[in-house]
Amino acid sequence: MVSQVSLLGVTLHAYGLILGIALLVGLQLFERLLNTVSKKHTENELYLFLSVVIVASIVGARLWHVATDYWLYADNLWETLSIWNGGLSIFGGLLGGAIASMFVRRLWLKNVGVLVLLDCAALSISFGQSIGRWANYVNQELYGLPTQLPWGITIDAAHRLPGFEGSTTFHPLFLYESLALLLFGAWLWGRQKTHAIGSGYFLRGYVFFYALLRLLLDFLRIGVPRGFLMLSANQAVLVCVILLMVILQNVERTKVPIHETK
């Protein structure tokens, strides 16, 4: 497995390189969408806004991962700083980015609605994630139960979790997620014909789909402590998120336009 790439005498971690490409794709799509629906900002204001949000997303992604997979770092706390070895949670990244957006927007994008920003992000992020999940492949992480299926991936002995040393091929959870996000992202993008950016529809749709996807895929994950109903800590949070999105969508559907009331 290629974990490092040499470019012009500089050694780059393949994990970081793939994430960098994923980030660029997501940002390009976000910028394109925002410039289409809003002309109330300058290019410089947008870049300042995105710079802060990106940093907040990375910090949030790492903190969430460490908090939910704490047992991985119990014996070596300094390892929590080694993000190039993997360990960035999309949930933490989304939360960190969303919180930062709400505050930083007042500095540089105060004339752009919060839901406009979040809908643009929801439409863009699936494509970036679809690419970014391949970083898990080069780091030999985010794999599931052992399998003999033709598309099972081989995991080196050094990267196999305790209790699975005798197995060689595993479910490629990163691949399942990558393909699902690509297909969903394309479908959601097409919904712009029937739903307006800024309505919150794309945000709710993305959060619901991704929470459901991860809830299901996490049943195939190994080495994860489980509690009530065999749910991991992440899954317990995901169930709450799914229920919240269902409630919000139902509330939105029951809203009656003023001109239709009698």
- The count of helical stretches stands at 8
Q: Multimeric state of these chains?
A: single chain
Number of strands: 4
Q: What percentage of residues falls in helices of 4 or more residues?
A: 55-70%
Query: What proportion of the residues form beta strands (DSSP E)?
Result: under 5%
User: Strands across the major sheet, in which order?
Assistant: 1-2
Mean pLDDT: 87
Q: What is the 3D form? A: globular
The biggest sheet amounts to:
2 strands, antiparallel
Rg is 20 Å
Helix-strand string: EEHHHHHEEHHH
Low-confidence stretches: 258-262
Distance between the termini: 66 Å
Structural class: mainly alpha
Number of domains: 1
General description of the model:
The structure is a single chain. By secondary structure, this protein is mostly helical. The chain has one domain. It has a two-stranded antiparallel sheet with strand order 1-2. A two-stranded antiparallel ribbon has the order 3-4. A hairpin with a 2-residue loop joins strand 1 and strand 2. Helix 4 runs parallel beside helix 7 and helix 7 runs antiparallel to helix 8. The longest helix is centred in the N-terminal third of the chain and has 26 residues. It is globular and about 60 Å long. The chain starts with a strand and ends in an 8-residue tail after the last helix. The C terminus is likely disordered.
Question: In a nutshell, what does this entry contain?
Answer:
The protein is mainly alpha-helical. It is built from eight helices and four strands; from the N terminus they run E-E-H-H-H-H-H-E-E-H-H-H. The chain is globular, with a radius of gyration of 20 Å.
